[in-house]
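Worked example

This section walks through a single chain of length 182. The input is the sequence exactly as stored; nothing has been trimmed or padded.
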Amino acid sequence: MQSRIHIDSGVFIEVKTMKKEAFTFVRLRRKHAEEIVFWKYPEPYGLYNLDPTTDCINELIKEDYYACLDHGGKVIGFCCVGEEARVPGGYKEGIYRDARYLDVGIGMKPALTGNGLGKTFFSQVLTFLSDTYGTKRFRLVVATFNKRAIRLYRSLGFTDEKVFYSQVKEKPATFLCMIKEM
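Given that input, the structure is written out below as tokens.
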């Protein structure tokens, strides 16, 4: 099945998806950030909750963040790239040394997680980022307890690279680095 992704420049990209959803990717703006910082994930996913502060909002509206909008213009998720997608403990482990990979991070509206939309969402994110940044190599880091996300990433061709530890919100957490070449 074909669907269309619209990006800011007015360009449409045809991609194969499993569902009919077509998402629009735009630079993440203040109005999007003000919504996203109030998303609350249930435990154990609370690690992904953001702080509803001005500093956090300002962080989200940096140029390396994109909002993902549904056909009605509602925010269903976001993605970020580069340094914004990295976990601090990964530097010490040498995870980010290979500059051939684009680091990517994603977030999906909590009410939409676990409903089978992740594969469509993330595959369209990867297509958008590949076209925008001209790369076919991606790297991501995911908390090891997040088995749902790890299954999703593996189903899209990501492979496990390295497990490491990092502090998150003043608590130690275990992370898995994964890579993909399209």
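What to look for: Strands lie at 2-7, 12-16, 24-27, 65-69, 75-81, 102-108, 137-143, 159-168, 171-181.
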